[in-house]
């Protein structure tokens, strides 16, 4: 069966078109993966509403996705909307736009469901030993999931690269006082999450989403973004800390000059890297395994 999975988060909207295997332990066969930075959650932490301009940016991206879905003969489509859509007072306007553009209703999933889908996508095919602590660092929220073959505990907390940047990291580059305020905010949320799951001392820490994969690409000194080199790369804490410091000391222009940096991520990557560094510190993880497979893959597996 050919399926289309769409993940609409606070910062990006992503599409996976894949053929789902007939057996339960089989791997997806990718047909297409796409990503657009639309910053749907721009200003949501402050206003509680999705901006009209942000909804329009998302609509334009969805038009392209809808055309590709039709062209490639997809059997089933599922679109999941996450943190920004959960928080917004005008989520109904967003849902109406999606229905008109894509022909399906978006599912505004809970943080718990987001965490479970991310775990499924991340650990299937992973050879590193369990149990796993899977962290999905998004634009508005971060999901923490603990499990082995299956999910055992999950929690979502409201820290993400966009939310932390809008809330604290205003300077270009951010000041030491701004970074300290973000660190305190992130640490409180991370400690709450790690107690809840619980997530201290995991056999393997697995990191998902663009903040993690970009940090991994920088730590690996890649000449360009290469998903095949990043997927399942193990990055030591010292390397994560070094990359984080460099990003927070850089201007947006400096970050844009980095060959692996997506232009839509340059202004918020410092906040995302900081979240990853603090998670590793508080969880006692000496390294993180970066994964290019995440909630998109989890959504696709569920459609088969």
UniProtKB/TrEMBL annotation:
InterPro entries: ATPase_NBD (IPR043129), GppA/Ppx_hydrolase (IPR050273), Ppx_GppA_N (IPR003695). It comes from Actinoplanes digitatis. Residues 24-296 form the Ppx/GppA phosphatase N-terminal domain. GO terms for molecular function: exopolyphosphatase activity; guanosine-5'-triphosphate,3'-diphosphate diphosphatase activity. Its EC number is 3.6.1.11, 3.6.1.40. Keywords: Hydrolase. The keyword Lyase does not apply. This is Exopolyphosphatase/guanosine-5'-triphosphate, 3'-diphosphate pyrophosphatase. It comes from the Bacteria. The keyword Hydrolase applies.
